[in-house]
Automatic annotation (TrEMBL):
InterPro entries reported for this sequence: NAD(P)-bd_dom_sf, SDR_fam
Keyword Protease on entry: no
Full protein name: 11-beta-hydroxysteroid dehydrogenase-like 2
Gene field: LOC104593267
Any one GO molecular function term: oxidoreductase activity
Amino acid sequence: MDAHVGMNGLDSFSMRVALAHPSKCRAAMDVIHKFIHLVLPPVIVVTLCLILPFIFTMKLVFSLIMRPSPLSGENMSGKVVLITGGSSGIGEHLAYEYAKGGASLVLIARRENSLREVARKAVGLGSPDVLVVGADVSKVDECKQFVEAAVNHFGRLDHLVCNAGIISFCAFKDVTSIASCTSLMDINFWGSFYPTYFAVPHLKRSKGKIIVNASSSGWMGSPAMTFYGV
């Protein structure tokens, strides 16, 4: 009871101080906000630089000890892999790694010309067949269509790699329109959900795998990346 009364008294005192000296309270809050904005970002960056290499090294060691990776520990010859965001970056190079293992590929992205170039290189690296589909993963109908196209073309689906994603830098306080943030959520969240939903029945039949390319921002928030980290 005493502690409860004490806390109420403290809250009441804080309220009286704020009401009596509003300018001083605002000045104090401004100082705190400036400190957070100036000091916190470099502290986070330095902390990540120190911690993440250790975390990634340990994850690599445990993954090698505990179980094989999807690319190196499984015979991919004769299997079919669908990769979203396969026109560049990580998705492109995942396609090459799967191609080296003899997998057939289904490459999905909006830039169909870039996909065709990736497909050409993948065939040169050992993929027996590559299906290219220009599609937008944020549109549910197109996701259904490219999963069906993959199964109709190859007769099966063994790996779904949800790799498509975009990044944005915007502090939440600076957002002036929700519409400016919806595309990021549509691609990064729904762009993985939709293909997975339509692929699951086929992956069950093949006892396949779902691989999602995610970011550490999902569990460790970063400045000006509020929506990206959701």
